[in-house]
Input
Amino acid sequence: MLAGVAYRILGSVADAEDVVQEAWLRWSRVDAAGVADPRAFLVRVTGRLAIDRLRAVKARREAYVGPWLPEPVSTEADLSEHVELADSVDLALLVVLETLSPLERAVFVLREAFGMPFAEIGEVIGRAEPATRQLARRAREHVRERRPRFDVGRAERREVTERFIQACSEGDLDGLLRLLADDVKLVGDGGGKVRAPLRVLRGAAGVARFLVTIASERGARRFLASAGLPESAGYTVEIADVNGGPAVVLTAEGRAIAMISLVVADGVVRTVYLLANPEKMSHLGGPGTSESA
Output
């Protein structure tokens, strides 16, 4: 649970793990017999540490090379039992949460994802209950305005994702164009370490041409080379549950190299998230990531 709280506030597995470790170190220094509710104590400490960490990394993310996207996490093991929690790590939602202030984001996560009472949230952020409720209301309105909310079931998302893979792999430009909304956008995060767009691509024609190019044999080999792998390396493309929904995962030499997540509405793709920064991909499908979700 602590990892889940920290991840939702920070959008980074590595930062969340550091926060949880520090929370447990602090727990080891207190007299446990004097703590009436260890769970509440640990959530309070984790929340405060996550807020402090988020404030510290904000400037670093502003200087990031290209668009910054949250780290993906595998939710394969969580979806059947924790559908609501899986929805709260939806990549599109986490992208919107990046636009909130640290306090607004913490309040939103603790209230909307974990259902904590406002009084307890106020203790985490150091605010009175009325101020906490005001932060929550402001955060909800902000998310409601900016988050793409589409009534799309998992089956439809998977079907569109499968057709998306087929069109890309076959170089079917016309088929891909039929899948993309006219105003589709592609947000790529390579962190300046691998080949990825440094600006958001907009429009079906440009996005389709880019996707067909990188999905071609030559494009895939060049991408693998940019990731430090030999061009002759074998690779697989499959659909996996990532951040609560189906995503395309490229794997080579036993590790995830890239991930594509689609925002779907009315049977077409509205947004393509392409994540390839190796520092973020190292956690996808690795030990402990499903627990983090």
